[in-house]
Amino acid sequence: CHTSGMLTPNGKEYAQKIPREELTHVILKLLQAWKEPLSHFNQHIEHHQELPDDSLRKAKQISNMVHELKTGVEKVTEKARFSINSLNGMASSEGTGLSISNEANMMSDSDFIHCFRRDSNKVQSYLKILKCRIMPENTC
Protein backbone atom coordinates (compact mmCIF):
# COMPACT_ATOMS: atom_id res chain seq x y z
CA CYS A 1 0.00 0.00 0.00
CA HIS A 2 1.29 3.44 -0.82
CA THR A 3 0.42 4.65 2.70
CA SER A 4 2.23 1.82 4.50
CA GLY A 5 5.17 4.08 5.32
CA MET A 6 2.91 6.67 6.89
CA LEU A 7 3.07 6.74 10.68
CA THR A 8 -0.39 6.05 12.06
CA PRO A 9 -1.50 4.92 15.51
CA ASN A 10 -1.44 1.16 15.84
CA GLY A 11 -4.52 0.02 17.66
CA LYS A 12 -7.36 1.77 19.41
CA GLU A 13 -5.56 2.13 22.74
CA TYR A 14 -2.63 3.98 21.19
CA ALA A 15 -4.90 6.18 19.08
CA GLN A 16 -6.81 7.19 22.21
CA LYS A 17 -3.59 8.46 23.80
CA ILE A 18 -2.70 10.77 20.91
CA PRO A 19 -3.65 14.45 21.29
CA ARG A 20 -6.70 15.56 19.33
CA GLU A 21 -4.70 17.84 17.05
CA GLU A 22 -2.25 15.11 16.12
CA LEU A 23 -5.00 12.56 15.47
CA THR A 24 -6.80 15.08 13.25
CA HIS A 25 -3.54 15.64 11.38
CA VAL A 26 -3.20 11.87 10.78
CA ILE A 27 -6.76 11.71 9.44
CA LEU A 28 -6.13 14.56 7.02
CA LYS A 29 -2.84 13.01 5.86
CA LEU A 30 -4.57 9.71 5.09
CA LEU A 31 -7.41 11.41 3.23
CA GLN A 32 -5.01 13.56 1.24
CA ALA A 33 -2.87 10.54 0.39
CA TRP A 34 -5.85 8.95 -1.38
CA LYS A 35 -6.84 11.96 -3.49
CA GLU A 36 -4.53 11.28 -6.43
CA PRO A 37 -4.72 7.45 -6.39
CA LEU A 38 -8.52 7.58 -6.40
CA SER A 39 -8.41 9.96 -9.34
CA HIS A 40 -6.10 7.59 -11.23
CA PHE A 41 -8.29 4.64 -10.30
CA ASN A 42 -11.39 6.40 -11.64
CA GLN A 43 -9.59 7.14 -14.91
CA HIS A 44 -8.43 3.53 -15.08
CA ILE A 45 -11.86 1.97 -14.60
CA GLU A 46 -13.52 4.36 -17.04
CA HIS A 47 -11.57 2.57 -19.78
CA HIS A 48 -13.07 -0.81 -18.83
CA GLN A 49 -15.97 -1.16 -21.23
CA GLU A 50 -17.21 -4.32 -19.52
CA LEU A 51 -17.89 -2.59 -16.20
CA PRO A 52 -21.51 -1.68 -15.56
CA ASP A 53 -22.40 1.99 -15.26
CA ASP A 54 -23.33 1.39 -11.64
CA SER A 55 -19.73 0.40 -10.79
CA LEU A 56 -18.37 3.49 -12.48
CA ARG A 57 -20.87 5.67 -10.64
CA LYS A 58 -19.93 4.10 -7.29
CA ALA A 59 -16.20 4.66 -7.90
CA LYS A 60 -16.80 8.34 -8.60
CA GLN A 61 -19.07 8.53 -5.56
CA ILE A 62 -16.27 7.16 -3.35
CA SER A 63 -13.83 9.77 -4.65
CA ASN A 64 -16.35 12.54 -4.00
CA MET A 65 -17.04 11.23 -0.49
CA VAL A 66 -13.33 11.19 0.36
CA HIS A 67 -13.03 14.78 -0.85
CA GLU A 68 -16.10 15.86 1.14
CA LEU A 69 -14.84 14.07 4.25
CA LYS A 70 -11.47 15.78 3.97
CA THR A 71 -13.21 19.16 3.59
CA GLY A 72 -15.44 18.40 6.58
CA VAL A 73 -12.52 17.37 8.79
CA GLU A 74 -10.69 20.57 7.80
CA LYS A 75 -13.73 22.65 8.78
CA VAL A 76 -14.06 20.89 12.12
CA THR A 77 -10.35 21.46 12.67
CA GLU A 78 -10.72 25.17 12.02
CA LYS A 79 -13.78 25.46 14.25
CA ALA A 80 -12.02 23.65 17.06
CA ARG A 81 -9.17 26.13 16.62
CA PHE A 82 -6.59 23.43 16.17
CA SER A 83 -3.24 24.52 14.85
CA ILE A 84 -3.63 23.93 11.13
CA ASN A 85 -0.45 25.67 10.05
CA SER A 86 1.26 22.31 9.73
CA LEU A 87 -1.57 21.05 7.53
CA ASN A 88 -1.28 23.79 4.92
CA GLY A 89 1.59 22.03 3.16
CA MET A 90 -0.56 19.04 2.30
CA ALA A 91 -2.05 20.38 -0.92
CA SER A 92 -0.28 17.73 -2.98
CA SER A 93 1.04 14.21 -2.61
CA GLU A 94 4.46 15.74 -1.94
CA GLY A 95 3.07 17.19 1.28
CA THR A 96 2.36 13.70 2.57
CA GLY A 97 5.90 12.53 1.89
CA LEU A 98 4.60 9.69 -0.26
CA SER A 99 5.61 8.68 -3.72
CA ILE A 100 2.27 7.52 -5.02
CA SER A 101 2.73 7.90 -8.74
CA ASN A 102 4.39 4.51 -9.30
CA GLU A 103 3.24 2.29 -6.45
CA ALA A 104 -0.44 3.22 -6.53
CA ASN A 105 -0.59 2.96 -10.31
CA MET A 106 1.06 -0.46 -10.33
CA MET A 107 -1.28 -2.05 -7.77
CA SER A 108 -3.86 -4.49 -8.99
CA ASP A 109 -7.47 -3.41 -8.54
CA SER A 110 -7.94 -5.87 -5.68
CA ASP A 111 -4.78 -4.63 -3.89
CA PHE A 112 -5.90 -1.06 -4.41
CA ILE A 113 -9.32 -1.78 -2.91
CA HIS A 114 -7.73 -3.70 -0.02
CA CYS A 115 -5.44 -0.76 0.81
CA PHE A 116 -8.26 1.76 0.48
CA ARG A 117 -10.47 -0.33 2.77
CA ARG A 118 -7.66 -0.61 5.33
CA ASP A 119 -7.11 3.15 5.39
CA SER A 120 -10.85 3.85 5.37
CA ASN A 121 -11.22 1.68 8.47
CA LYS A 122 -8.41 3.59 10.16
CA VAL A 123 -10.02 6.93 9.36
CA GLN A 124 -13.38 5.67 10.62
CA SER A 125 -11.83 4.50 13.90
CA TYR A 126 -9.92 7.74 14.42
CA LEU A 127 -13.05 9.79 13.73
CA LYS A 128 -14.98 7.75 16.31
CA ILE A 129 -12.27 8.45 18.88
CA LEU A 130 -12.39 12.18 18.10
CA LYS A 131 -16.17 12.18 18.33
CA CYS A 132 -16.01 10.58 21.76
CA ARG A 133 -13.50 13.17 22.93
CA ILE A 134 -15.50 16.09 21.60
CA MET A 135 -18.92 14.78 22.70
CA PRO A 136 -18.36 12.48 25.70
CA GLU A 137 -22.11 12.34 26.38
CA ASN A 138 -22.35 9.75 23.57
CA THR A 139 -21.21 7.09 26.07
CA CYS A 140 -18.33 5.86 23.99
From TrEMBL:
Keywords: Hormone, Secreted. PROSITE patterns: SOMATOTROPIN_1 (PS00266), SOMATOTROPIN_2 (PS00338). InterPro entries: 4_helix_cytokine-like_core (IPR009079), Somatotropin/Prolactin (IPR001400), Somatotropin_CS (IPR018116). It is found in: Secreted. Its main location: secreted. The keyword Secreted applies. GO terms for biological process: positive regulation of receptor signaling pathway via JAK-STAT; response to nutrient levels. GO terms for molecular function: hormone activity. Belongs to the somatotropin/prolactin family. This is PRL protein. It comes from Ptilonorhynchus violaceus.
